[in-house]
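Re: the pair you flagged

First of the two:
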Amino acid sequence: MDAGCDVVVLGAGPAGLAAALRAARAGASVTLVEAADRVGGLCRTLEADGCRYDLGGHIPFLRSDARVAWAQDLMGTELLRVGRPVARVEDGRIRPGRYMDQHPGTVSDAVPRDGTAAGEIGATVGAAFRDRVVRPYMEKVDGWPLEVISADRAMRLRDEQRAPRGFWFPPGGIGCLMDAMAAAIRAHGADVRLGTPMTRLLHRGGRVTGVEVGGGHPGPITTPSIISAITPGLMVRAADPAAPGGLLPPITMRAVALVYLMADRPPVGEEAWVQVADPRVPFSRIAEFANWDPGMVPAGRTVLCAEVYGTGDDDDPWWSLADDALARAVAASLADPLGWVDDPSAFRALQVVRLPRAYPLVEAWRGEEAALAPTWLASLDGLELARGGTVVTSIEAGEAAADRAAGAMIAGAA
């Protein structure tokens, strides 16, 4: 029989790790369960052929001195300062700044906000500038017209993912910060269970009573408080008794293939991260990890991570390619049309990671439908949702969920 605990945290991505750490530091008995065999979720650092590289490019977006100090205290080392902003390709040249951050100066053709990305961006920079500069890139990433993409999606990209003066980065890769959080959680006595999927969300009379887990130690865990940092869909499907019907309308998922190329040469350029709107180029953005942390890549080598977005379907022109063919297409585009290298054959495929369900897309007019599952889950007493976007917003969401859970437990005890 499981003795139970004060708080069960579901998911060991940045939000779940932050929630578990906050609760453990507050003195709660915490069990953190994660289906994967390691922490971090998508915020992981991989190793191959003597090189380290992140699972995609993860800028932490640490905005305050206090948050930087928090990370440095956890890791026991100084963070690295990457002094260059995210760059973009425009008119055949690499220029500083994202497409989303550009502004024409004066706007005479602003459009009304209408809940879509087209309206939100057009109200800020005007219709003509929006269509010339922002539309090609954003539609290449999401695969939908701006008139279908929600305004919320545009606002999150615009406001939460800005790094106009560069950014702080954990030495060794984003996974090192996740590992440091997990180590601190264990040091505070929490039970961290990896390879442990949640199989049932147990509730009765509008209140959670625990969860059931699988993996190496299957069975129930009783608890008065659950913090969920996994997708609402998984929670709703696992509910016992079953959740009301109609909470999970069909959702379009965007796929991404992460193509890692290595070459025995100095870095291709000086940028850490470059956005590419050109439709002839398979990838939408590319990271060069030697420019994030030189210690991740041996001297005389470089590692690129190209993010190729698509539908994940067999008729997707890039996703449908075999891994080696996709890697060759990415390498070839570095020469033509980008003109960054003379000999693309110098690059070899280090790894190709395919994420067929990388992130959800919700049409602008379906916001209420998308909120049905989170709303029902939030109605269960003792259940808190930790939902973020970037690394730091996820961490903040996890901490806020832990604070709400602690407040609810104190109020219940009183």
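Second of the two:
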Amino acid sequence: MLKGKEVKAIADCKVTKSIAKGDIIFSEGDMLNGVYCVQSGICKLTKLSEKGKEQVVKLVVKGELLGQRSVISNQAANLSATALNDMEVCFIPKTELLEILHSNNDFSFDVLLRMATDLKEAETTIINMAQKSVRHRLAEILLYLYNDFGVDEAGFLNVTLSREDFASIVGTATESIIRTLSQFKKEGLISTKGKQIKVEDKKSLSMLE
């Protein structure tokens, strides 16, 4: 929990930035001079493999921070952040953030909890890739997008991911994702329009193994 003077200090130094869909907020290997707080929109955090293949690690939404681990550890960013749609982010300089972390134990603890949660999510992802089928993992991602980000007026998922993004998140080949989505359509679980996806049978999708 931030104190009144700390809230004012951040308000005085923060910079609000507009990020267009597809723009890179920061790249793997960058040294960051501050953190980004997502005010609206969604971005993906990705990691490049040794062969240059992009792996989606996490989707970041409103209220979450970007770059805090790099800033706190004073190391280069180990992930890249790319906007999936138009975003508004608030940039908080590194010096101000570190000063608050040193002086406010409660805030420091909250940041540590968030980082611990991120680590747990990463471990869960690794376990799921080893133990669950592609159908099961893809169904879970579709339900996650449906439950956490909602749908537009036409009923399509608010987050539009490429088939390559789905493959990266699920941990399989793009061809496998295309084939599995086609199977889901034939089974009446989803419908599609271009890259857009609509969940048609949430209950059955949640029961896949």
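The radius of gyration is 19 Å.

-B.
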